[in-house]
Amino acid sequence: MTASSASTASVLSLIADDMLEVDAVIAHRLGSSVPLVGQVSQYIISAGGKRLRPALLLLVSAALGYHGPHRFTLAAVVEFIHTATLLHDDVVDESTLRRGRATANENFGNPASVLVGDFLYSRAFQMMLDANDMRIMAILADATNVIAEGEVLQLMNMHDASLDEAGYLRVIRSKTAKLFEASARLGAVLAGASPAIEEACASYGQALGTAFQVIDDVLDYDGDAQEMGKNLGDDLREGKATLPLIAAMQRGSASQRDLIRHAIEHGAVDELDSIIRIVRETGALDVTRSAAAAEAQRAIDHAQRLPANQHAEGLVQLAAQLLQRRN
Fold this sequence. Notes:
Layout: H1 3-12, H2 16-29, H3 35-45, H4 52-63, H5 70-93, E1 97-98, E2 101-102, H6 104-108, H7 110-128, H8 134-157, H9 165-175, H10 177-190, H11 195-222, H12 225-228, H13 234-237, H14 243-251, H15 254-266, H16 272-281, H17 284-303, H18 310-321
Antiparallel strand pairs: 1-2
Helix pairs in contact: 1-18, 2-5, 3-7, 4-5, 4-10, 4-18, 5-7, 5-8, 5-10, 8-9, 8-10, 10-11, 11-17, 14-15, 14-17, 17-18
């Protein structure tokens, strides 16, 4: 375990008992009379991961003094929505490896992955009815819709070497950060927080989710495949112009820009070693890490508006530790 993952574990230990309750809800609500649904769902959910989105909902709820049972159901809902997006993402991206093992689509095929993703989305919407709160349903419905738009936007941007940082961030804030934002907002809504505190929580979630994805994109060029549990260069293979590549093209020579542009437009990884070297030599990784640091600091600033307690401090630590993330 790396130092950063150990630190993250110390924050998550604050809600360890709550997460066990969430796990119980997940196990119970994964049930289906169709065996393949349960097999695929169980396969991807049991793959592990930090479960940051449900953790975020639980941390915000506790920081604002809410300890009711709806937090467990809604934490499971956001995990189901996230898992559905992973199933669909891996099909769209033709991914073969996630969290160190074969993706569900590699194991069960594309049709099963897409359809079980649909099952998880619809089960999540069944579950959110338990709270009997139209505001909660509106937040989750809006988030799911924005995520879907982000997926389509990313698809439109594939193999587009002209994408700039603003276009890149627009995709991230829709596709990844929106569910972080919704998770934090739900914790505040459950706690009956004031509009100002609710917006601070939502802004924290958006900034945290953005920083999380930016660091993920750094690791595609500066990570360890074994630690990350995915193949290095996957983003390039899919034709994604992520911030490390955008920054490298801005800072590199004409020949370096041409090489990266060709790789993005054609999804070519035959020059991956050269491109990784260019990304590192041009300082593009430093530029990208600085962008992540700015988002992490934005998250910290919003978290510090919450009442002072160990769970609010945990939210601050979670943002600070993202910058040391290695997987």
